[in-house]
Amino acid sequence: MSNHVLPVPVPELVEGELVEGASTSSANGGLVGGEPASDPFAPHGPGRARTEADLHDLAAQGAERFADANTAGRDPETVALLAWASQTFGTSIAVACSMAGDTVVAHLAAQASPGVDVLFLQTGYHFPETIGTRDALAATIDAHVIDVLPRQSVAEQDATHGPKLHDRDPSLCCALRKTEPINRELASYEAWITGLRREDSPLRAATALVEWDAVHAMVKINPIATWTFDQLADYAGRHAVPINLLLGEGYPSIGCAPCTRPVAPGEDPRAGRWAGLAKTECGLHVAPTSKDA
Ligand code: SF4
Prior knowledge:
- By secondary structure, the protein is of the alpha/beta class.
- It has 8 helices and 8 strands; from the N terminus they run E-E-H-H-E-H-E-H-E-H-H-H-E-E-E-H.
- The chain has helices at 52-65, 75-89, 103-112, 128-138, 154-161, 165-168, 170-186, 229-239, and strands spanning 24-25, 31-32, 93-96, 116-121, 143-148, 191-193, 210-213, 218-221.
- The strands form 2 sheets. A 6-stranded mixed β-sheet has the order 5-4-3-6-8-7. A two-stranded antiparallel ribbon has the order 1-2.
- A hairpin with a 5-residue loop joins strand 1 and strand 2.
- The longest helix has 17 residues, at 170-186.
- 47% of the residues are buried.
- The structure holds iron/sulfur cluster (SF4).
């Protein structure tokens, strides 16, 4: 993917380098993630009313209903998919957002499900631009943007495992700062919405619009799976959705700062993630998902 100049409003940058634990506001006035809480690690979802078998059936129904939907830049079909998700799962659905270009998904989901929970993995290692995008999104859409926190701060992890664990054992670092926190949160919802796109990587090339997530035992909805980056940028521009400044500066895939570098024009979009290592995914989306759902 070539580098893009994005015709969209951009968030203000947060001063400083890496930002950790900032408060997050939402358009409907709530404060989530930064407010005092008796248990900062308590999941935010309402819990699951359906059995795993019921959820599996719903995934199969959704997969069949939307199997031939072409959501690629076609807003009505994307809206129909998210309306089905909202009607089916009510408040037991969450959006996972990395605050890159997937803010478009949160924007779409908030229209179908006002007040929807938007989960942001606050690893403590994000670029200031990512934090700025989070804050701009929270001020723009009707949603609860939630900082999902690891059990340990960066300083606490450094004390336990030594500094810069991401350089020595990135899989353990991702497990502690991404996989465990998102698994903890997702267990309190019946379905989640992601910003996965097929063009992101070969591992994501077969991403379905609706699928069964066997690892989390829940329904997984990928409304922009068929979108190209240009379609995503076009939607963001038309609807004034804040997206990450770094997307226009050679970062087509944005994760934690220590593990992300810019890529050259034409280079694999995810080549800048964990560069030099075999690792290409943090573990959130690599788990096998049943294709029969
Ligand atoms: Fe740690 Fe890097 Fe994974 Fe972030 S992307 S959790 S810094 S290993």
